[in-house]
Amino acid sequence: MAANKYLILPGGLKMPTLGFGTFDSNDETEVTVSLNAALEAGYRHIDTAYVYQNEKNIGNVLKQWFASGKLKREDIFITTKLPMYGVHPDRVEFFMKKSLENLQLKYVDLYLVHLPLGFKYDESTGRPKVNEKGEVQFEGKTDHAAIWRKMEEQVDAGRAKTIGLSNYNISQIETVLKSARIKPANLQVELHVFLQQNALVDFCHKNGITVVAHTPLGSPGYNKFLKKIGKPERDLPDILSNPVIGKIAKKHSKSSAQIAIRFLIQRGIAPIPKSVTPKRVQENINVFDFTLDDSDMKELKNLEVGEKARVCEFRVFNGIELHPDYPMEV
Questions:
Q1: Which of 52, 111, 121, 326 is catalytic?
Q2: What is the dihedral of CA 117, 121, 126, 127, to 10 degrees?
Q3: What does the alpha-carbon distance between residue 292 and residue 162 come to, in Å, rounded to a whole number?
Q4: Is position 85 annotated as part of the catalytic site?
Q5: What span, in angstroms and rounded, lies between the C-alpha atoms of 89 and 98?
Q6: For 93-133, what is each residue's pLDDT tens digit?
Q7: 88, 57 contact by CB (below 8 A)
Q8: 165-179 pLDDT, tens per residue?
Q9: DSSP letters along 235-274, please?
């Protein structure tokens, strides 16, 4: 598949192939500095989610760019996501409206179901309900068809241009497709050189579903996050110091991160790398001035490890492995 600068969604909507992945942070300064750096560097595809707690800060930055005339709403592609405690037919519209209010937008370009798992919602805290052991309380097996009907209503109401899924496996996508009036436009999943998910990507492409790769660099800072929330650190894939990637990077006078990003783009996938460092934000977007040749791609494809290389297995939510829709592997 050609490495274009855009992926075309239903209705002809263009999604920039390279996006800026935002992060779970309510640190206004950190979000503001990194997003401004991304917009200055030329990113026009911004990915966020209700659970990241950064939608309000993103909305404030966008408002400033719109007010200054440097950016028009139609110039930018915004994705946000229905939180896990919104995965219930009665709460889809509620959280869609909350995200639009936070972002100070009339619509988003793409609205995703963040996880195929529904958590019970605690109205008093605005967070998932937990039991005395601190375990997340679930809604039971997810009625994917019922959730999708409510997602379709967001398109009908003009709140979302397109809708899609995140962290779904093939069987869960098939369940949605069977009843869908509006087909999912996109699937966002973890994808990188060590976790290539070829069967899932092929399935999506055959069914006209575009694919976005979260965690495309393996999330080098994930252990800091685990430590912050009191979870044990894990042995994570180290993409940026891999010798094969390093050799290819040297060949093209690029960084290892740029090689890892370019690899996904040439597979017809849109990566959304995250960074809070302006220099790296700028570096990550400079991937359209070179091409990986067949031998490069073969070497990179041979780095596939599979499920052992998965960073985001979502066990940060205590008890999630007990959910009937877990795990989410293909």
A1: 52
A2: -50
A3: 31
A4: no
A5: 16
A6: 999 999 999 999 999 999 999 999 999 999 999 999 989 88
A7: no
A8: 999 999 999 999 999
A9: -----TT-HHHHHHHHHHT--HHHHHHHHHHTTT-EE---
